[in-house]
Design brief:
Structural class: alpha/beta
Oligomer: single chain
Largest sheet: 6 strands, parallel
Strand content: 5-15%
Number of strands: 6
Radius of gyration: 18 Å
Length: about 240
């Protein structure tokens, strides 16, 4: 049972726990020091548990491999603009391989008056997601803790919806480090249901758009991608 929310990053961490993803691959950086602190001191480094990496390329590559084996995403935390640029090749690989991945980033305060000299200026970008937008399914830069919670839940939905792929959510440092009213109500993962797996390919007027997409992807032979899931593999037999 989690205690009361004290900081903005506690609210973000609570949503990470609610999504029931076991690990977060991470190369520590100052831009998300608040979230790092909350994972350790609010969550007890559990659910998600941190997997410490030495480079952002390792961060996303481990998440990529996990998704290939399990079909489910990990959180992959990268530091500001520099870490995201390091991670960009791995994110592109995940995009090409159609694997789900939830990339978490951060940046200096959007309010310039709150930035420390130099370091928080060079780690602040007006549109951080633009670095990887051509090869991510979706990105967001929420400006409040409730918005950050909803953004994470939507990111989870989108990453896992066929065609699966990486998504990116970035958190303002100020959002993470400001006190949070303990009575703040955050949305729940149960309010953002995942798309249902599709049955063997069939055409009906009631077929959902997601099933229509998966059915057509399963029936398409694209070189190394004859199927992107066990459901697809079985349907091709």
């Amino acid at each position: 049972m989690l205690g009361p929310l004290e900081w903005g990053s506690d609210g973000v961490a609570a949503v990470l726990r609610d999504l029931n993803i076991p690990y977060i691959t991470i190369n520590p950086g100052a831009s998300y020091r608040g979230l790092h602190d909350s994972i350790v001191n609010y969550l007890g480094d559990s659910q998600p548990e941190m997997l410490l990496c030495l480079h952002e390329d390792h961060v996303v590559s481990i998440a990529h491999g996990y998704a290939k084996v399990t079909g489910t995403p990990l959180f992959a935390a990268v530091h500001s603009n520099v870490g995201l640029m390091h991670a960009s090749m791995g994110i592109f690989n995940a995009w090409c391989d159609r694997v789900p991945m939830i990339v978490l980033g951060a940046h200096g305060p959007a309010d310039a008056a709150k930035r420390r000299p130099w370091i928080e200026w060079i780690h602040t970008v007006s549109d951080l997601g633009a670095i990887v937008r051509p090869y991510t399914k979706w990105d967001d830069h929420p400006a409040s803790v409730p918005a950050a919670a909803e953004s994470l839940l939507r990111a989870n939905q989108i990453a896992r919806t066929v065609p699966r792929g990486p998504v990116f959510v970035s958190f303002d440092m100020s959002l993470q480090e400001e006190p949070l009213d303990p009575s703040t109500v955050l949305p729940k993962a149960s309010d953002f249901a995942l798309p249902r797996p599709c049955a063997r390919a069939r055409t009906t007027s009631s077929e959902s758009p997601n099933c229509w997409r998966e059915r057509n992807i399963r029936q398409s032979w694209w070189g190394a991608f004859p199927a992107i899931s066990t459901v697809g593999t079985n349907a091709l037999r």
